[in-house]
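DATA CLASS: polypeptide
GOAL: derive structure tokens

***
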Amino acid sequence: MNKNIVIIGGGPAGMEAASQLMLLGYSPIIIEKTSALGGHLARWDRLFPDRGSAKGLLDELFVKLNGANIFYDSDIVSINRLNDSYNIILSNGITVIAQAVLIATGFNLFDARKKEEYGYGIYNKVITNADLEAYFKNGSDERIDESGIKRIGFVHCVGSRDEKACNRQCSKVCCITALKQAIELKEKFPESVIYCFYMDLRLFGRKYEDIYLSAQKDFGIRFIRGRVSEASEDIDGNVVIKAEDTLTGKPLKVTLDLLVLMAGMSANPDANRLAGMLSLAIDSDGFLQSYDNVAYIHRSKKKGIFYAGTCTGPKTLPETLSEARSAALDIHNYLKNSDYGG
């Protein structure tokens, strides 16, 4: 095909969309701001619900890109609408003319330091879900004393469903990720006691409820409905948290050897910067606003601009990959029919 398609973002959405477009006969161009593909997936160890290898999936996605055009360490300097295409200037000086653009810039992990009451970046034994996953992947973290792990706490909804954090949306994957990680820690430290502090559990996916029941029955993980109000550090360097069990109405004070904050998804500033260049709509939650939230979530209201993945809101990995395939087909139809699209 002699029509250029530029994909901005080399995470799972961008990779899957590119491979599907290649099957359709195109030679898409992936623009990735870092030196490697994969996005957040490249930093993950195991995936829910079956705890499959994140690297295994990433390798599968990468193999399908054999022969693809990829610009690494490249950012968008400017992007302008021409008659029937877009003029894109990259930070490396290259200019690309594209008939269609797919934005797949993904999400940012909420900065847990903004929730100062939990002590991330202040207390040594407070980490995030991403830190814990890196520990599983790499095998070490100086903040985790493997010889002294007896009590572990998980705090759900850190930076999600939080008006003060300016993130009202549910991040969709935090509950099931907490269950996965709690089970993995229990397997690694079988004598430990693990608590999950939650507002309410949102386990909508297939097998998710089974994992929750197994976490309770098979692994003895304790679920406490109630927000953690604050964390502090005792003289021994352990984390002391205060919370309320809203089911019993009793206050709690628990000393932990490790506190894990389930940081949620936030809008990526890179997507918002592109939105400014192209006059794209941004929704109230900070994510890009798609054509609609039912049939065309992968399409913008600007002709020739398409979306895939979490640039339009929190999604699971299967949803992201499915949306990338749908976007690729939509782009194909758009390019075949000049009057197609909004």
